[in-house]
Fold each of these.
Amino acid sequence: MFNFLNELKKNLKIPQELDLNGFNIINIAGNLLYVEGHLGLVTLSKELISFKVKKSVIIVEGKDMVLNELSDSTLKICGKIKKVEQI
Amino acid sequence: MKLRNISKFHIHGLNQEKLLNEMCKNFTLFDIERISKSDTFFECSYFDYRKIEKFIKSHGVIIESVSHEGFAHKLMKIFSSYGLVFAIFISIILYFFQNQYVLQYEVVGVDKLSEKEIVEFVKDEFSSKKTEIETSKIENALIKKFSCISFVSCIIKGQTLVLNIKEKLLPSEMYGTFAPLTANKSGKITKIELISGTLKVKVGDIVQEGDVLVEPFTLDASGELKKVEARAEILAEVYNEGVSEHYETFVQVSRTGEKRVQSEVMLFGLSIYNFKQEIPFSLFETECEYTNLSKNLFMPFKLKKTVFYELVEETIVSDFEEVKDEFVNKAKIDAEKKCESQNILDEFYTLRHIGGVTFVNYCIVTEEKICGENK
């Protein structure tokens, strides 16, 4: 099956040592955040959603955020997204 | 009705992130909205809701509410309504059971034959079960039974047996009841106009009410008896008699105007209170009237009011000659009531005196039709 992100990774000329297989995050217009490869929720509230990814935690700050979809490996956050931070 | 089949949960409990993480390993969750630290709303597929419910309960989290949307839920609700399912099931059984039978009979095209007679014949002779009905047999039986049927077709349409009948076209005199024509009044025959049938009387004959005038058959040239409708127009002199009686002496009872009233209160036919005035009259008549005192049925009190009217007897002596005209008129009015024709030939009256009673017989002789055409 065609996967846009996989195709993008293949075509990029980047150093071998960089790991691109952990997770993917796509922020669409600051209103929708699509995440692939999450490893579980850490915090869930309207202003802050954080989740684990490979070797780190992603913190999403925003307003009136709703976890629109949550499955084993993907999640979608809807709402006003102000900041996405990896720690 | 939404076609998206979803279940919406409201859960209450701590450490919900952990629960959601575990749940999302097996199910996809939608629109997760945390309204407070311990309350969260989320949606899942309707088909997963039982498993999710079990999962949540096993993790010690309280389910505050579960609501469902979508066609599947509505459908399942119908199937879980056992009364409805049972009723549908019974209806289907009854429908299939009664569908095997003819429930209605429709007869088309009959004019002279009785629809009821045909339907009763078919009902008596043939089964109403559709599988046992042979339409050709019904057709043949109907033609055999009713000689005036020239064509019949029988079909089963749904649960109706439709009988399309064409009757034989006979000469008009062949129709009718084939009953003899009888005199409906006594009199002397003056004129006969025979249309069909065999005449049994002639002009000048005196007939009584009920006498046969025309027989419903004819003899053809070969001497064979042929049934026809008896039809004729027969006129006769009819003696219409009116009577009045005059008594020389008679006793007349009349009210004097004096009355007494007695009242009683009744309950279930028993008198529970009464007010009775003494009746000083030697001759009286009474009138009773019941009135409901209460409107309820538990204690139906009734007031019985009895009025006693004083009567007086008076012997009246009357001379017939003084009131003769009045009694003759009375008898005449009585005779006129019996006249059906305006064609008056003669009128007269006779008087008979027997033991103080005078009978006035007034007779109006008219020419009248004493038999009509059979209908």
Amino acid sequence: MNATHKPIATGSDWNFSILERFDAELARLADEYRLDTYPNQIEVITTEQMMDAYASVGMPVGYHHWSFGKQFLAVEQAYKRGQMGLAYELVINSNPCIAYLMEENTLMMQVLVMAHACYGHNSFFKGNYLFRTWTDAESIVDYLVFARHYIAKCEERHGVQAVEQLLDACHALQNYGVDRYKRPSPISAEEEAKRQDEREAYLQTQVNLLWRTIPDSPEGGESLPGSLSPEEDDPLGLHSGGRYPPEPQENLLYFVEKNAPLLAPWQREIVRIVRKLAQYFYPQRQTQVMNEGWACFWHYTLMNRLYDDGNVDEGLMLEFLQSHAAVINQPAFDSPYYSGINPYALGFAIFMDIKRICEAPTDEDRQWFPDIAGSPWRETLEFAMRNFKDESFIQQFLSPKVMRDHKLFLVVDDDQEETLEVAAIHNEQGYRRVRDALATQYALSVREPNIQVVEAAIRGDRSLTLHHVQDSRRPLARSVYPVIRHLQKLWGFPVHLISMEEGRVTRRYRWPVEESAQSEE
Amino acid sequence: MTYFIDRRPNAKHKSAVNRQRFLERYRKHIKRSVEEAVNRRSITDMERGEKVSIPTKDISEPVFQHGPGGAREIVSPGNKEFLAGDKIQRPPGQGGGSGAGEGSASNQGEGTDEFAFTLSREEFLEFVFDGLELPHLQRKPLKSLQEIKMVRAGLARDGVPARISITRSMREAYARRIAMRAPIKRALREAQQALETEERKDPVLRNPARITELKAEIERLEKRIEAVPFIDTYDLRYHQLAAQPQPSSQAVMFCVMDVSGSMTQNHKDIAKRFFLLLYLFLEKHYEKVELVFVRHHTAAREVSEEEFFYSRETGGTIVSSALTLVKKIIDKRYPPEQWNLYVAQASDGDNWDDDSNVCRDLLIKQLMPQLQYYAYVEITPHDHQSLWQEYETVAARFPEQFAMRQIIDAGDIYPVFRELFKRRLSQQH
């Protein structure tokens, strides 16, 4: 500790000028480490406001829906019972980056949250390729405002209940409202509002074209719907035969928005809003370990620097270490506190380990990570942060040492076997197997069932057919029925869902349920 | 670059709408819980919220998920003694393992069976009194100044500068400018035309004097147009406020109870619960509710709440003494045109035989015309006596305002209360 330096503040009380001085110091350090961040907007809020923010998944403005109310009640209950420490951090991927500080936190917590959220998460949002590609930090807040107003307007015009039912249906499908491989066009509230009427009309003509059944060539007289297709009438080639859509569609909500026969224009717009927001949150779901690991790495590094430079005293540092240790604690699988792998712990361990491999590589590291062993750590970390998601990050950077430290082991649970089998553990033979399995565990494509639209019967009964590509005989949970019921409401005609494994049909679901099928359930 | 913003003074209850939506959606479930709670709790205990739980499956938000079954691989931390190839017995009661990798989905999935949350006191009472309504709810106007509300009432020509209506003032000014300029403009046009005709004439025929005259006239008129003021005090309009009397938001509730020897403490407890329910209910409808406790045996007295419920007396019963006292108190302190008056009476039905018809006459002639509502509960498992029969005639005369029910034990209170105050749609019109 630098003895000549006086700490910026001691004790647990804080005020705005103290926070500003800490922020200035953190900003200086972040600059020294070349952390590239959006400007920060730090908002000091009350407990209740924090619960509000939690309930609306951190969106600073959200539209109204009962599910957010349920979320609020759950958070409130947990908080009142003391089951949950509120708000270690809550930060919004926007420009400026909005972070919340809760008024009743101690000084240490405020500084920690600033380091974690305003410099850790913030730089992750700005740097990681998924966020760069899929989200638009500039316009998200405006878009949320637009969405809120639009939905409120719909409630006024069409009734709260109609809007609520529609939102229920959209929420059920929102994980399937994202484009996984195609970059979406950026969202902008202004543009949205401006183009909206135009789009409503346009969308409707598209849909009408698709579902048109009355021939419109007067001289042809008897021509059938399937056979008429002058180029200019059918630019999409929808009626030129073959199945529609020609390729399976993974974005169910997009497909519904563009093709559902009976939706009114305002309903399509709401489907679009839910889809856009799902898309916005999509990168967060794919970078949990990395995002938290990165933020923990930086709060740890920055707090230690504050201490080394004499800006905080031992008391604050001890309080910090206790809090930090709680956050990155990983209970063992057989502990009563175990609730899955702690993304903070895993991410922090991997980032710390990358730094170690760069600075003090062992022979094992040289063998496993020839590219990065001994390289400058700051560049390597930056590279890892920018170019990966959880799945590939674990595959690439989970080292044998971290697996040993966490004592990771792999269990195979096959319902055709009587016992579970330990397939691999943290040893020379098992490292690769464990790492592969853990990476897969974080792949969204594996975590969520793979379901796509394969056919809309545009010339038949207008039913919609989906395929579920099953893997390792893992069936769909029973929630499939309410979900396809929601989908059926959106689509307006019967919905079929077929589970397939290796080309074989394993199970069929449909809504409305057929008489004979009901007994089966 | 960092900005600090203090959001603490900002609007609270941002989630209030969502919370209400949730409560509305699960109304049926919550009502069931609340009704159970009401039956379980003592009525004195109504002043707090209630924990309500709803089966999770009823409120889940379904998404496509993997179900149990099939083969899956799970990576877990904290290995102690396992080696590759070890076989482990399945943990009991766990179908196929819930899978560690399901992330946040498992928090709300099949994990817990009940979704529990706490209703606030207001929300709780809302559900307790759901579907109930004060019969004959007629708010009385109040003359005193406190109950007057200032409301916007059109525009006036004078007022204080702070209340100027700018748009209206400008509109007036515009109208005045048009009106004042029109005749001048007309004259100007005529003068210009005359000048033009004059100038078009053959130079010989021109009248130079006339031309000079016209030119002077035009100049004068133009000046006059310019002189019309852009805005004048005459144009100003002010928002006007008018005093509007507000419907009375105060009520007084008379609790009348028999404390003669035949009333046991048990009877009194039952009566107390009934009074409390009524009080809470009135409190929801009126900003201010005053309580007057009148107890009686052969003579009536106004007493404090404590004394009302807990001191014991003996002796005979003359109900009319209490009614006379209520009437006196009303006349003295609660003029009916300013107060909404409610009387709740509890008794075991005993009365002096000669007194019951006195009560009837008192009620019909003097009290009932002034009251909003009179609720009588008779706490007795026995047959009715003369008081009940006389009251029945009162009820026949004032079917909207007079209600009577029999209560046998504490469990009846809430149902009876609900019955007394349930929304009577059919009778309303």
